[in-house]
Design goal:
six-stranded parallel beta sheet, Rossmann fold
């Protein structure tokens, strides 16, 4: 495996939607990062009350989404997109600093590992586990979502790179809520299906994920 500018993208991906892929497209076309590592959580530290779909399903949907990426963005620069299950294998709550150390040891990097996050998380960055260690290890690749100014980490020592672009407003929680409200046997509405690539939407429908009436939350 050759050394590349590499960025990790963490989250529940429950389910992965077009906005997640658009995030990769945005960073890929506006920076020199060429390898992206999706890292699905076992337990989301920011949403501990949420019990995600089984890891096997979330990993399968991510791999389907990654396979669909070249069709969705055929003109993008050459890139490598990987699904890494390190946090799922680790189990429990994983902290970004631990995953960043792990990925930095296992992947050949050009420069620092990037950590992709939305600008809504930037103001609380100093409260993250072992922030100073993380700060000295990574580049924070911050996606601008708010039209207003964002707050920088107060120590001023973090390597922060802002990336602008169109913002997708699709959300995994919206998909889950819409599907949970369906009656038994009711097909997935086109409005919900359109938030995901076809292969992921088909997987969700086939496995009846997120349907309360079918016993799948």
């Amino acid at each position: 495996m050759e050394a590349k500018r590499t960025a990790m993208v963490g989250g529940s991906f429950d389910p992965v939607h077009r906005g997640h892929l658009h995030l990769i497209h945005t960073v890929l076309t506006r920076t020199d990062f060429r390898r992206f590592v999706f890292v699905p959580v076992a337990v989301n530290n920011f949403k501990r009350e949420h019990v995600p779909a089984p890891a096997v399903d979330r990993l399968s949907m991510l791999r389907l989404a990654v396979a669909a990426y070249p069709v969705l963005y055929p003109d993008d620069p050459e890139r490598e997109i990987i699904v890494d299950d390190c946090e799922i294998r680790r189990g429990g709550v994983s902290y970004t600093v631990d995953t960043a150390k792990d990925l930095s040891n296992r992947y050949p990097l050009l420069g620092r590992l990037g950590v992709v996050l939305g600008d809504d998380l930037l103001s609380g960055l100093e409260g993250w586990r072992a922030y100073r260690t993380l700060r000295d290890l990574v580049t924070f690749v911050v996606i601008r979502r708010s039209p207003r100014g964002v707050v920088f980490p107060t120590d001023g020592k973090a390597d922060v790179r802002f990336v602008g672009g169109d913002v997708y407003h699709d959300s995994s929680s919206e998909i889950r809520d819409e599907l949970a409200a369906l009656a038994s046997g009711e097909p997935m509405p086109p409005s919900v299906r359109s938030m995901m690539v076809k292969e992921v939407a088909d997987y969700v429908e086939t496995h009846r994920l997120y349907r309360v009436t079918d016993g799948n939350l």
